[in-house]
Specification:
The complex is a heterodimer of chains A (622) and B (294). Chain A is an alpha+beta fold and 622 residues long. Helix content of chain A is 71%, strand content 8%. Chain B has 9 helices and 13 strands. Classes of the chains: A alpha+beta (622), B alpha/beta (294). At the A-B interface, helix 9, helix 12, helix 14 and helix 15 of A face helix 4 and helix 6 of B.
């Protein structure tokens, strides 16, 4: 039973070990890293590098950025110590990128410090100061910042020492000893302070600090600090005049530095030895150490020169990179400019196209508008011409209608309607003439009424068609016997009215006689038979009484002419009778004169013209 | 040449007689005896109470020789001082002093150059205190634009300096200037400025009214309104190993204290133009490093 339990235990522990090896916990990695850090601080042992790199890989595999950053910084500090500044810088930059990605203020500040350390080693003091300032700013944001602040003070004071600002270094290396600051850091600060004192020749305060550190017993653990302390103690002895002690201490220190990379301390110890021997009067030894010091210094200077060369090269490559970058930027700018120009061209072309399109559109619209207006105008003109044509047609029709309405369809003469439409105007013209004395000559209007004798007999004997023919022929005779300007009207049935314009009343009977005779002699042919017709005519002048032109209206004068017709009919037929004023002025009213024509004739107040000598109411014939 | 013989004669006679004279070493390359005699113009060195410059060029060396003698006298060392020109060819700069072969140097030295010899050297109270030593950034007079560089644009300028002049180097290291290291003659550095290889160079303010430095017919002026403070003090040093070291150092320090109390030190530095009132209100390019009473 017991062997079985033991086997099981071994198996389990092996398994745990295996798992632990394959996948260590973060805490374990942290512990390992801390241990490595302690070792590195004591002596920058190159053999630590593989372990650190392994830890870094583990942290990376776990995605543990803080541990990764710490490992990077530790590795950087070691390679930097061995002069591989380029790798150191690269590792620090990686750490910085990770810290920025992780937004870890604490680690970012630590990375800045590591870079400041590197820059101090490279004597890039301005850069170092910049990174220290950055770290200081970040430190203010950290809650528990005693340690980081102490670290910053340490590097600030070291920077001040390197720049030869010893008094400033004394000030910056003074950090109150409070909890939360590592003993190592405090010891380093104290060593820096004591070194500053020694540079200023103040060996007593330096001695005091060194004694305190001795009592604390820390220095034994850290080789670097141990040597630093040895150097300082030797120098304290030198400055205080204890040359033998100084030589002992310095030689002990030198032994400690043999086979180490602490070249600076070696040179300092050699200088102390040379000074001490010289002051003891042992010039041979002094010379020996001075030579060694010179060689070491030469090596240090060579190292410095290499560092400076490295820096120069870095600056040169940076300048080249910058130049290349500038060229690239210039090219980019050029290309961007070209692209811009191209875009501008395209834009211009587009705008131009749009402009032309717009112009074309506008032109087309204008064309359309003009066309529309042209069409519109043409149509309007067409309409107008149509309207004008219609109006003309209408006017023509109206004229024809008027003509028709004013014309007797059978004879083609004017009808009563036409007569009434024109007579008032004509009378008005005559009345105006009468008012102008020189136009009173021959300005009578003669109203003549003509009636075909026995026309009823013709109708009855030969039919109405024959009567119509007679009427038509009769009308032609009237036209022939009168002037164009005279008005001939079919007054009704077989009665015609003739108004002779501008006719001397004394000459009127010539016309009536010509008509009577023409009718009498005209052979009217009806149904191939010739028939004879006569006519009776009555007439009267207007104004009837030239002395009182307004006394009788044209209606009165027409009635007087009609009275004359009746006198002709009654007396004989185929005769004409004209009524006119006598010698005396008729005073009676017009109506009375018209109604009592015969009485007036008989009384001789009015007189007649006639072709008849045997008028029933005696009247004078000429 | 004449003076050199004179000094040599004095030194030999001193050795012979062994007593009534106090020999003060002066590095032969820094032998200013001609100008020193010119400045004294027949006066007794102890009677000098006006330190205004009467010669061209740097004046501080002469003033130091005078002040050293006055301090020794006031401290009780009444022997006549004679200057002994010595070449400096030893492996260490101060080896004669350390070895006790020299008693005292005629010139003050930077404190930081002797800190590691303080076991062998007495270091006097400061003749020039930290912060009192000011210098200008000299540029060629023809470059008017450079003369008016503001403090904020110093980082655009190159300054030439010798890294072996540690105090100068440290002072400039703490300015924004870009440093060009050159180890060689001072005149060559000035030529570098003249030929525009570098823009400027750190030089003591000239005693002329316009602060113009005239060197071999060429004129140099400081960048206006900017000065650099040299971050160290200057002291006389006395050998601890010399038989008379203790006594002389005691006398020297006593005398210096008296001179300081009387205000003679400050006045001497001011009148001589070493502390230049014209630049009193100028901005300090390396102000940050001067803390803690510097």
């Amino acid at each position: 039973m017991q062997p079985a339990v033991v086997s099981l235990c071994i198996l389990v522990s092996a398994l745990i070990t295996f798992c632990g090896f394959a996948y260590e916990s973060s805490e374990q990695i942290q512990r390992n890293l801390n241990a490595l850090q302690m070792s590195a601080e004591q002596d920058y042992d190159l053999s630590l590098l593989p372990d650190i790199r392994a830890l870094r890989e583990q942290a990376r595999a776990q995605g543990n950025k803080p541990l990764q950053i710490k490992a990077l910084l530790l590795e950087g500090s070691i390679v930097q110590h061995f002069g591989e500044f380029e790798d150191g810088l690269d590792l620090h930059q990686q750490a910085l990128q990770l810290a920025e990605a992780d937004n870890n203020t604490f680690l970012k500040a630590n990375t800045y410090l590591a870079i400041a350390h590197l820059d101090i080693d490279l004597e890039s003091y301005e850069l170092a100061q910049r990174y220290l300032d950055k770290a200081s700013l970040l430190a203010e944001q950290i809650d528990d910042n005693a340690q980081i602040k102490a670290d910053i003070s340490l590097w600030q004071s070291r920077l001040n020492m390197d720049k030869g600002a010893y008094r400033l270094a004394l000030k910056s290396s003074f950090v109150p000893e409070i909890s939360g600051i590592r003993q190592e850091t405090l010891a380093q600060l104290k060593l820096t302070r004591s070194w500053a004192h020694l540079q200023l020749g103040e060996y007593l305060p330096a001695k005091q600090i060194l004694d305190e550190l001795d009592n604390a017993g820390y220095l034994v653990q850290n080789q670097r600090m141990r040597i630093m302390a040895a150097v300082q103690r030797a120098r304290v002895a030198l400055q205080s005049g204890d040359f033998a002690v100084s030589i002992d201490l310095a030689q002990a220190g030198l032994r400690d530095t043999l086979g180490t990379r602490f070249l600076l301390f070696q040179s300092q110890l050699q200088w102390i030895l040379a000074s001490a021997y010289a002051q003891l009067g042992d010039y041979q030894q002094a010379h020996r150490y001075l030579k060694r010091y010179a060689v070491t210094e030469q090596s240090l200077n060579l190292q410095k020169r290499n560092n400076k060369l490295l820096k120069l090269e870095a600056q040169y490559s940076l300048a080249q990179q910058k130049q290349a970058l500038n060229e690239l930027e210039r090219d980019n700018a050029q290309q961007a400019k070209q692209i811009m120009a191209h875009q501008q061209q395209i834009e211009n072309a587009r705008l131009s196209q749009q402009r032309w399109l717009l112009i074309a559109l506008l032109a087309f619209t204008l064309l359309l508008v003009f066309y529309w207006r042209w069409q519109n105008r043409r149509y309007t003109k067409l309409l107008e011409s149509q309207v004008a044509q219609r109006t003309e047609e209408l006017a023509e029709r109206n004229k024809r209608l008027q003509t028709l309405s004013f014309t007797d369809s059978l004879t083609g003469l004017s009808n009563r309607h036409h007569f009434f439409s024109v007579i008032d105007g004509t009378i008005e013209v005559y009345k105006q003439r009468w008012q102008t004395p020189e136009l009173q000559q021959n300005t009578d209007l003669i109203f003549v009424i003509i009636d075909i004798d026995h026309f009823k007999n013709i109708n009855d004997s030969f039919g109405h068609a024959a009567g119509d023919i007679v009427l038509q022929d009769f009308a032609e005779i009237l036209k022939q016997c009168t002037r164009e300007s005279d008005i001939i009207v079919r007054w009704g049935g077989e009665e015609f009215l003739l108004v002779m314009l501008d006719m001397d009343r004394a000459a009127a009977h010539e016309v009536t006689e010509r008509i009577r005779r023409q009718v009498e002699s005209y052979p009217f042919v009806v149904n191939d038979q010739s028939i004879n017709c006569t006519c009776s005519i009555g007439f009267a002048p207007f104004p009837f009484d030239p002395t009182q032109p307004d006394k009788l209206s044209w209606e009165h004068v027409l009635e007087l002419a009609d009275g004359g017709l009746y006198l002709a009919k009654e007396s004989h037929r185929n005769a004409w009778v004209g009524v006119h004023t006598g010698d005396e002025e008729v005073q009676s009213p017009a109506e009375h004169v018209v109604q009592n024509l015969r009485s007036y004739l008989q009384a001789g107040k009015l007189k007649t013209w006639s072709n008849l000598s045997d008028l029933i109411y005696a009247c004078n014939t000429r | 040449m004449k003076m050199k013989w004179l000094f040599s004669l004095l030194f030999i006679s001193n050795l012979c007689r062994g007593s009534n004279q106090l020999v003060v070493d002066i590095i032969s390359s820094e032998n200013f005896s001609q100008r020193y005699e010119h400045f004294l113009a027949g006066r007794d060195v102890l009677d000098v109470d006006s330190f205004f410059p009467t010669t061209k060029g740097s004046h501080i060396e002469i003033i130091e020789m005078v002040l050293l003698q006055q301090a020794l006298f006031l401290g009780g060392e009444t022997r006549k001082v004679v200057f002994n020109p010595k070449p400096s060819v030893n492996i260490l700069e101060f080896s004669d002093l350390i070895a006790g072969e020299s008693l005292i140097l005629a010139r003050s030295v930077w404190h930081e150059n002797i800190v590691d010899y303080r076991g062998s050297l007495f270091i006097s109270d400061p003749l020039v205190e930290v912060g009192d030593y000011e210098a200008g950034l000299y540029v060629t007079k023809r470059n008017v634009a450079l003369q008016q560089t503001p403090l904020s644009q110093l980082r655009q300028l190159n300054v030439v300096s010798n890294p072996q002049w540690e105090v100068d180097w440290r002072a400039l290291m703490n300015t924004d200037l870009h440093m060009v290291s050159f180890i060689g003659p001072w005149e060559t550095m000035l030529a570098m400025v003249e030929s525009d290889v570098v823009d400027t160079m750190l030089i003591n303010f000239s005693v002329s009214d316009s602060l113009t430095l005239n060197f071999e017919g060429k004129e140099y002026v400081p960048i206006e309104n900017i000065k650099v403070v040299l971050p160290d003090s200057r002291h006389f040093v006395v050998s601890k190993n010399h038989p008379e070291g203790v006594q002389i150092f005691a006398a020297l320090n006593r005398g210096l204290k008296i001179l300081k109390r009387r205000g003679v030190l400050k006045r001497a530095l001011t009148e001589s133009g070493f502390i230049n009132k014209k630049v009193a209100n100028w901005q300090v390019a390396n102000a940050e490093m001067l803390v803690g009473g510097d």
